Amino acid sequence: MKVILIEDVKSLGKKGEIVNVNDGYARNYVLPKKLGVEANSKNLNDLKLQKKNDEKVAKEKLEDAKALAEKIEAKEIVVKLEAGTSGKVFGSVSTKEIAAEVKKQLGLEVDKKKISIPDAIKSLGNYNVKVKLHRDVTANLSVKVEAK
After folding, report:
1. Dmax over Cα atoms in the chain, in whole Å?
2. How confident is the model over 41-88, as pLDDT tens digits?
3. Which of 129, 106, 131 minimizes the C-alpha distance to 119?
4. pLDDT tens figures, 77-100
């Protein structure tokens, strides 16, 4: 019996795949546990429409991420911290502080987990920080660290 999987099933397949299983396995396990549905013409058409919709949503998310990346790369944020006379900052600049400054200065929502700082920022100056907005889109954010 051909079955369209609704969820990932270990050793059987991933969500959205059409798999061939034994009739008993389908009737007694896959269908009752709502892991899949029978692959008839209506369900196949629904799967096709769902895949088209998923592609459209993924494309829109990619376009949004590219637009956000352009906004981020065009601007520079300023982080003000206490610093010593030699230009050393007391502590370091964290991703949490950068995310808060982006929200405050640019009005954009950026998750602190998506920000990656190559080396710890422990002195005054200009730095480039990478922000991963999408699987395929990474923006460079310019961060200027100044003394209070």
Report:
1. 77
2. 999 999 999 999 999 999 999 999 999 999 999 999 999 988 888 888
3. 129
4. 999 988 888 888 888 889 999 999
